[in-house]
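Consortium newsletter contribution from the modelling node. Members have asked for a concrete example of what our holo predictions look like. Here is one, prepared for the glutamine complex that several groups have been discussing at recent meetings.
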Amino acid sequence: MNELLYLGITEILENLRAKEFSAEELTCAYLERIQETERRVHAYLSVLGDEAISVARAADRKIRAGDHDSPLLGIPVAVKDLLCMNGVKTTCASRILENFEAPYDATVVTRLKDAGAVILGKLNMDEFAMGSSCEQSAFGTTHNPWNLKTIPGGSSGGSAAAVAARSCVVSLGSDTGGSIRQPAACCGVVGMKPTYGRISRYGLIAFASSLDQIGPFAKNVRDAAILLGTVSGHDPRDSTSADEPVPDYTESLEAGVRGLKIGIPTEYFIEGMNPEVEAAVREAVSVFEEQGAEILEISLPHTEYALPVYYILAPAEASSNLARYDGVRYGVRKDGESAYGSLFGMYSASRENGFGDEVKRRIMLGTYALSSGYYDAFYTKAQKVRTLICRDFKAAFDMVDIVLSATAPTPAFEIGERLDDPISMYLSDILTIPCNLAGLPGISQPCGFTSGGLPIGLQLVGKPFAEKTILQTAAAFEMATTHHKVLPPL
Ligand code: GLN
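And here is the predicted structure:
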C-alpha cells in the first residue's frame, strides 16, 4: 500500500505545507487505491475522479501561494450517497432515485468544499438508510475489508468500509438508529453521531427527521474531531440545527480521563451478547480505570422499550418523508399500459418498482402506526415511552459524564445471514438506538478483535453537546491501546 495512505489529517497537512508531496499526488494515490480495492469492497457508488483532481490542483495552487488555513485543504474525503452534491448523482442507494442529480449542495458538502476538502465520491449504503448491513442497497452489497464474506454494517456501510480500506482519509455518514456507530464497529474505525442539531441536515435526504444526524468516520479520534469541527454549526436552512458555539474539538484530546465518571448500564449487557464482545468491553473498562476514571454501575430502566419505540417512530416518519417519491418529480416512473390506467396506477407502479423490500416494509409499518384508530395506540404511546427513555439518560447524566457499552452485541455477521429475518437484523442496533431517541452524542471506536479477526466496537455516549468530552475520553483510550493501528488484511 502506498505510504501516503497511512497518514492522518494533521500529518497530511504538515506534509503538504512542507511540500513533501502535493495534494494532486495524494488524490491520485487515493484514486489508485479505490481502483485497487473497489472490485472487492464496493464501498463507492460513484467516483469523481476528474473533479477530485481539479480540486486537488486548486488546493496546490493555494498552498503555493502560502494560503493554507483551510482545515481540510487537499484532504481526500468521501460522503454517503444521501448527501446532496450539486450536479452529482445522489441515489440513496435506491432505484427510485437512480438518475437523480442533486441541484444543490447539502450544507455539510458546502462546508467540506469551503474547507478545501477533495471529495472523491459517493458511498454505498442501505436504501434510504434503512438497514444494518448494506445489503439493502439497490446497487450491490459493500464487503467488510476485514473479511470480505461479512457485512460492513449499515446503513453507512460504504462510509465505514472506505475508511477501513484506506480508500479515503475520512468520510461522512448518517445515523438514525446506529448507522454510523454500528458500521464503524464492524469495520474497526471511529464513527461519531453528534448531538441532534449539532450538524445541519439541509441536503441530507430524510429517513426519520427527528432522529437523523450526520457524522464523521475516521481512522483515529483526532481526524474525527477535525472533521466534526469543520461540518458542525448552526444553519438557518435547518430549523432544528442548534445555535450552539462550535468548540475546538481537538483542544482537549490529550487531557485524559482522570476524575471522569463513566457509567456502565447493567441493561446493556444483554442476553445473547457475543462473549468476545463482552470481554473486550469489560477490558476497556479496566483500561479507563487504570487511567484514573471512576467507574459506576448505572441503570437505564426503559432500555428494553427502545427498539420497539424506534420501530414505530422511525417507520412512521419514513412513511411520511418517502411519500414524495411518486414518479412525478423524482426518479423512476414506471412505463407501460397497466401503470398508466390511472394516476393512482402510475404512483403505485412507480413505487412498487422503485423501492426495495425493506423500504416497503417500513412504509407499511409506518403508515399503519399513523393510521386513524391506531395512531394513539402506537404512535402516541411510542412518543410517551421515548420521553421515559430521555429521562433515564437525564437521570444517569446527573451522576456520570459518559455512558459506556458495546456498540453492537455481535461483530460483523456473514453476508446473507440475517437477510430473511428482519427482527434479527433490527437487533443489531439494540445498543445504539436509545441514544438517537434521546438525541445524545455517541461514538464508536475499536476496542479489540474476535478470535476470527473481526473488529469490536466500544460505544461512549455523552450529555447533549458534550462531543468534546466524548472525544477526549475516546482519545485517552486510543492512546492507551493499539487496536486502531491494526489494518485489515486487504
Ligand atoms: N439499522 C437501523 C435501521 O434500519 C438504523 C438505521 C440508521 O441509523 N439509519 O433503521
